[in-house]
Amino acid sequence: MSQPFLTRRTRTLALTAFGIGAVVAAESWVARHEAQKALEDLMQDHALLALALTATLERATPAAGDAGAGSVGLLCGAARELERTGGVVVVLKPLGGGGLRACDGRPVEVRALADAVDRGEKSLVLGRDEAVRLGLPERVGVAGIAPLPAVTGLSAVVVTGTAASERDRSKRQQARTIVSIAVVSALILGFGLADLRRQRREVALERQVELEKTKQERDAELAKANRMATIAALASGFAHEIGTPLGIISGRIEQLSAADTSATPERRRELLAQVAQQVARVGTLVRSFLAFARGESGLLARVSARDVAESALRLVRHRFVTANVELTLELAAGEESRIACEPALFEQALVNVLVNALEASSAGQVVTLRVDAEAARLCFAVLDQGSGIPEAVMARVTEPFFTTKAGSGGTGLGLTIAKEIVAHHRGDFEIHRRARPDGATAGTEVLIFVPKHGDQNAT
Description:
This protein is α+β, with helices and mostly antiparallel strands.
């Protein structure tokens, strides 16, 4: 896994975690704020109830300032009615420093509430145990405090109650908060996972592009190395390739220089024409091999299978005559089929294979060049009756400079260059051992397959 991907993945995970954390923190803050606001509203409501009770008591108090039992009783009656319907407890604070007491006369010992009344506070939050001592359910409670004029005989009236309804509302709010957090977190997580998958695809694509680029670079280097090896082989084997036309030239010059006064002028002109033809062939070979070494496609010509086969045989026939090896040509029904090739190069490939077959043959044996037609290609097969190629060296016979005839002048380049020339013509080059029906080796066959008719760029 690449470092950039690790960085992007870490950043995505961090942003996802931050987003979820931010949502949780925001929703939690909102929930706490709403709960606090609800509690404050409840305290304000209880403070208003306490004020309402004090207003009732003040209207019922005689002008002389004596509260009397009737006034206090009226307040307690209203308080008991409020306690039955509102789920609250009303607490009174008498004048003279007495302790808190309920309307039914029982003392109320809640120090925090007494201190709040003494300090003149208007509201207070009560703990669960304090709510129980007031006679309320075990819930967080609130108290609303309202002072009374001294003429009433009381210093303050306190309305207490629990926050059960607000607690239920807070639970519902918490449930909504949890659902919101879950939904938003799921969305953030989904986007994060989708981004991670996208990043993985991008990294995989980048890696594939890099691999393809590396492969192309390696292929280019390999092609360059192969081309350099081929050029080296061409440079080393150039003398080998032009040996045939130079041999013909040398022979014809010897014939012209001989003291044979019986040679007619026509015969001399024929020999000179052959010399000129072979010199031209050397020039053509040089140009073709240089173009081939540079990787140029060359100019293809449409030639018949018969013509290219017969031309190759003419170039090597004198060698076969000298070695007393018979050279034959077999043409199949498709003998008039044409191929697109560089004639000098393709003929040289056939010459190399034929010379290799000659060197593997003994006097009295036969080498055959057979042309077979297939549906879309032609096959030039060279068959000899030699001892065959050993299995141990079969895979190496087309390697540059590999030869089993080093002691007799072999360069190990003939089949290598022939294979390269065939590949240059978009053909296939195969070598097989021939066997007789009894299983014994009957020589070697070299198959050269090339497309029929060539392509649209042929001329």
